[in-house]
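Deliverable D5.2: sample structural annotation.
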Amino acid sequence: MKYDCIIVLANEMDINGNLNAESLGRINLACEQYFNKVSDKLITCGWDYRKDSELFIGNVLKSYAINLGVPAEVIIAELNSRDTVGDAFFTKVNIIEKTNWKNLLVVTSDYHVLRTAKIFNFIYGPSYEINVIGAPGSESAEKKISEEKSTIAFENTFKGVEPGNDKEIFERLSNSHPFYNGKIYSKITL
């Protein structure tokens, strides 16, 4: 199947921008998909989350893909997202809605596939076709429990919001999500 773009989600990196095993698994899988001609566009996600570094993980992922041979001009770095919800929202409003792209492949980790699919399908809404695949090797009982808790938190945060409604989603994100409402990190604006 051919996709309009591949969206790769970040995990973590160290102070020098060395990606952890989980981020490496994700970007390697995304690049493998690119080289297999699944899509000719790649979006890397992630903000400058480390207080001890000014590097944006989305840019680090982009540089890594370029070093593997993906042309720089086919990669877009989305640098506003702070988590999976942000990955979905900001790729949609800052990139995807400005194109005619409707068929998306999202790359994450194996344990994170179900929650990612739920979030992306909700944020994007019914007019998009989204497939999520996971890089193997990071599944654990602890991560499974964490995913279940995060899924419940996501459902509670966005209860009553219409899937795909950017205005309602942004309002809820900026007022109720702790990563975006100013409680943990600075409040977002569009």
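Annotation notes: Strands lie at 5-8, 42-45, 75-78, 103-109, 129-135. The domain at 5-137 is CATH 3.40.50.620 (Rossmann fold).
The annotation will be released with the project's public dataset once the embargo ends.
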